[in-house]
Amino acid sequence: xxxxxxxxxxxxxxxxSVDQLIIxxxxxxxxxxxxxxxxxxxxxFRFRSSRNPRGDYQGVKNHASSYIEVxxxxxxxxxxxxxxxxxxxxxxxxxxxxxxxTVIYVVAQQFAWNFRYAxxxxxxxxxxxxxxxxxxxxxxxxxxxxxxxxVQTLNEVHVPLGKPVIAYMSSKDVIHDFRIIAMRVxxxxxxxxxxxxxxxxxxxxxxxxxxxxxCGNGHxxxxxxxxxxxxxxxxxxxxxSKAGAATSFE
Amino acid sequence: MEIPYTVEARPDTGVYNAKLGVWLFLASEVxxxxxxxxxxxxxxxxxxxxxxxxxxxxxxxxxLNTVLLASSAITTLLAWAALKVKxxxxxxxYHGLTLLLAVAFLVIxxxxxxxxxxxxxxxxxxxKIADGHLVEKSxxxxxxxxxxxxxxxxxxxxxxxxxxxxxRHAKPPGEGEVKIAAANIKKMQNYxxxxxxxxxxxxxxxxxxxxxILGGAIVIAFLWGPGSKMWKTxxxxxxxxxxxxxxxxxxxxxxxxFLFPVLYLT
Amino acid sequence: MVTKMQSTxxxxxxxQADHGHGAHHHDEGFxxxxxxxxxHKVIGIQYGITALAFLLFGFSLMLMMxxxxxxxxxxxxxxxxxxxxxxxxxAAKGVMSPDLxxxxxxxxxxxxxxxxVVPLLSGMYGNYLVPLQIGANDMAFPRLNMMSYQFxxxxxxxxxxxxxxxxGAAQAGWTSYPPLSEVIPTDGQTYWxxxxxxxxxxxxxxxANIIATIVQLRAPGLTWMRLPFFVWSQFVASFLLxxxxxxxxxxxxxxxxxxxxxxxxxxxxxxxxxxxxxxxxGGGNPLxxxxxxxxxxxxxxxxxxxxxxxxxxxxxxxxxxxxxxxYKSLVYGSLGLGFMSFIVWAxxxxxxxxxxxxxxxxxxxxMIISIPSxxxxxxxxxxxxxxxxxFNTPMLFALAFLPMFGIGGLTGLPxxxxxxxxxxxxxxxxIAHFHYVVAPGTIFAIFAxxxxxxxxxxxxxxxxxxxxxxxxxSFIFMxxxxxxxxxxxxxxxxxxxxxxxxxYSASYFQANGIVAAGGLSNNIMYLNNTILWAxxxxxxxxxxxxxxxxxxxxxxxxxxxxxxxxxxxxEWQTPTPPGHGNFLTPPSVYRGPxxxxxxGHPVDxxxxxxxxxxxx
Lengths: 250, 266, 616
Ligand code: HEA
Ligand code: HEA
Ligand code: CUA
Ligand SMILES: [Cu+2]
Description:
The complex is a heterotrimer of chains A (250), B (266) and C (616). In chain A, a hairpin with a 2-residue loop joins strand 1 (102-109) and strand 2. Chain A contains 5 helices and 11 strands. In chain A, 32% of the residues lie in helices and 22% in strands. Chain A is elongated, with a radius of gyration of 25 Å. Chain A folds into 2 domains: 2-93, Helix Hairpins, CATH 1.10.287; 98-242, Cupredoxins -  blue copper proteins (Immunoglobulin-like), CATH 2.60.40. In chain A, the strands form 3 sheets. A 5-stranded mixed sheet of chain A has the order 3-2-1-5-8, with no helix packed on it. In chain A, strands 4-11-9 form a 3-stranded mixed sheet, with helices on one face. In chain A, strands 7-6-10 form a 3-stranded antiparallel sheet, with no helix packed on it. With 266 residues, chain B is α+β, with helices and mostly antiparallel strands. In chain B, a hairpin with a 4-residue loop joins strand 1 (119-124) and strand 2 (129-137). Chain B is elongated, with a radius of gyration of 24 Å. Chain C has one domain (40-268, 282-573): Cytochrome C Oxidase, Chain A, CATH 1.20.210.10. Chain C has helices at residues 2-11, 13-18, 22-27, 30-35, 40-70, 79-87, 98-133, 142-161, 180-183, 188-216, 229-261, 286-320, 327-340, 356-382, 393-410, 412-416, 418-424, 428-458, 464-490, 506-511, 522-555; strands spanning 272-273, 276-277. Residues 1-27 of chain C have low confidence and may be disordered. At the A-C interface, helix 2, helix 3, strand 7, strand 9 and strand 10 of A face helix 7, strand 1, helix 12, helix 14 and helix 15 of C.
């Protein structure tokens, strides 16, 4: 079924369960549709006017269709309660601890991605959009000097393999959407809001970040962002290579 | 070709066409203002409480306007009742009164708007904020070239804009005039809809409401004047028209009954 | 054109019988009779012609976009130079700039939904058929009816004009999400908002009118449960329009305030666009717009489908020669759909950072709303069993509607779960989902209706052979267009990509030395080409229809009976075409809408206004 649907490869924990739900629903859809269309075809053939010159006033007399309707509703309830809702709970509520994760702050802009790594405590200092300037993209309160040394990058963000990532999404101009297909994450970045997502990469590689929300004339080409998943050692090296990083980040 | 039930009610539904029509229209109006009120709520809860304005509007004028509209609700009702008992002259008086009340409402509303457009918040170069009513701008006043000066009265001078937010219990500003040189002005803005979201939604709601008042007043003026010729030819139908316009008018009054506390009192 | 059409009708005997002193009447005023008419049928036809023109226009925009998707950077054949001439630098060298692509995309959505399909369903069919089917001589408020057409027309002009202003038409999608819609420095969005205010006003007047007409002007004996299902579908759709549009109007007014006066109800504090801090007070809420927009736009999609279901039900009942199966379920199903449609809106907003509680609520309501759709579709399907099915052109379109709507509806389910929507949101999967409902769905229903009621409106039949050609070609090409989009969406291709997503393709990575996992495969990208040519084919497939349509108005074979399809409902019991005032004598109704093949009755249909012979 995965093959049939052509779902792209997964590189994060929990990505399978998203696909699983998609697959379940498609099974339901296909079952319904195939049954439906078979019946449809047979009926059209059997009751064409040349074969059946006069209609039947009563038509179908049994209640089979009601049973099917109830069954459809039943399957939907099952999918909803046992698959969809728990899944969303993991996605939107059950966050890993910040201290066990790579915490990144993301600010999207027309048409690029800015990243800033948090300190060990998972924070970067008090943020407010009113402080945003060209050299303070993340709007960090100048009065809050507790987290000065965090690393900041443009369009490329590295994370270590196997460690959960928490990313806080925001934007400084219009709404974009931070989407990494292989991680099965997607989140609108909304100016004025700061919304976290989390995922745990399970495969090394370089993954493209899609901007999946219309954001202006550069929307289609806002494709320079990449997420690099690498081994913890390489990640450490990369981090160290970023100026000023050594002091604040392990 | 006659369309049925334009005058008499359809027995099984109990209404004539126009009455049903206006009820449907009002249902959609409820959704319109409902949408705006929910926008108000969302904007309000989204603003830090210390920044949401209180006491920025003139409660006395607001109350007066509430009274005017409430009275006009009564006069429209009386106008219709007068037609029901076939007293056309009384109708003329009551609907005339309604019209006057509507005009008075609009006049008061526009003085309130006018007041807002003359009310300035001026951020000075020393960081202090002067907030007051514009008396005049000197002839050579130019913010960009930094020439000239403005004169304000009823001025408050504060350190932070937060201090201007809640004016419910503030003591009234001083009477005297204050002159501020353009050279000392960093930013100057009057209380238009762009000033903050409270004023944004205030203007949106009240302008839309005022347009409804205006529309209603035009209809009433028509029924009072040229439209009343129908009384001679089709009295029933004319009475229905007055009833229907009255339903609309009551709705518009009702909206104000919600607007007044939401914008003026809280 | 309209004149000609009317003068044809004038020649038919019934019309003259109705207006004995016709000639004199005719001289009285061309304007009154055809342009500022208050006759619901003329207004219906006005809506129809205008909206069909917009349908074609909306499609042409998309055709040019599809070329650009398949061949980014390459001049559009034929249309390119014309665009450059008309619009200037945004189409330099005949290539669409991203700005222009975004304009066309936003306007395609807007035009299709608000200027083509709703006016066709509610404006044309609602106006033309509702009074006829309930045995009324006109709408409850004829003058208001004329006004609602005029507002629609003005709205259309404003939208159309916006293409030619500097900077061009709106570019922020038909959804017009702020901040984007407010920070694009052109007036296109302002035009869009003003146009929408006109269109909304038009819809409000129109829908109140339809409801009042149905409630007040039903013929004696026409009880609620004897209404043709089409009338019910119009009734529910009108309520949706009436109650869902005003919040969008509110939002539109607020956005207009933001655009024109500089307020910032939808703009947050500290917005900085293009490196400059936006000069606004801030503090606004971008999501507020989305809530208000979807509060309309979800019910709106049922406005796009319910009357279509109504048309299909009429055509099916007539061509199976048997009553609809489960009429009551159909009625209650539509009412249920109507109610539920007001509380599912946020399923378009799962990715705006929705918490678990709200997500649970909207996922649940979304699943619940699928049930009445299943019921409605099942009833229509069951109606076929035991019929004596005639496969004429209207029936072909109506039958094809069913599986197409099935595909569109079923693919709504994975979108309805927030977790699977995570992968599918804003991809071509969504595009395919809703186009299956509105294009091979609603548009097919519209075609079915045109072929079906054409003889009533014009007194002539459309050509059956060319009708079938139109059907089969449209059917094939529609599927070739939209089926591949599911594959593209599942593979992760985003919508609204002015270059068709090349920047995300594996071949682009390769060509530019980008090392990255994934990337859209060549096969997926190649589908863009398939879709382009299928869309061209779909366009060509409309030529037989357009020719057939106009040819038949003047030269089609005259109908020999007022009721050529041997139908039961009241619109067929009028003179052909009906004159002003519709019925020669006010009809009374004695039975349900679909008394086909009644056992023991010599012919296989009994019209609704035929008195009971047994008792007589
Ligand atoms: C007429 C138009 C129409 C209709 C009817 C629907 C119907 C439905 N839609 Fe769709 N939708 C749109 C038009 C429509 N939609 C549009 C325009 C958008 C995108 C807007 C944009 O972003 O620009 C959209 C987007 C959209 C989304 C947001 C996706 C996203 O942006 O990520 C969602 C999510 O829940 C959704 C869900 C549904 C559901 C659950 C239904 C259900 O009502 C469907 C119910 C139908 C069925 C379940 C099928 C019928 C049953 C059978 C086939 C019978 C088989 C059974 C038996 C034989 C017993 N739609
Ligand atoms: C009712 C709504 C509706 C309808 C019917 C259609 C019909 C079609 N749509 Fe569209 N579409 C939307 C609503 C609709 N669309 C919306 C809301 C969007 C989202 C916009 C956004 O992103 O903001 C969208 C987006 C959209 C996209 C995505 C663009 C992108 O994301 O970049 C595409 C891509 O292929 C597309 C294609 C088509 C095609 C090929 C048709 C075809 O099916 C068209 C078929 C029509 C014809 C072939 C014309 C027939 C004409 C006649 C018969 C005229 C006869 C005339 C006389 C007799 C006078 N549409
Ligand atoms: Cu950024 Cu699209
Ligand atoms: Cu929806």
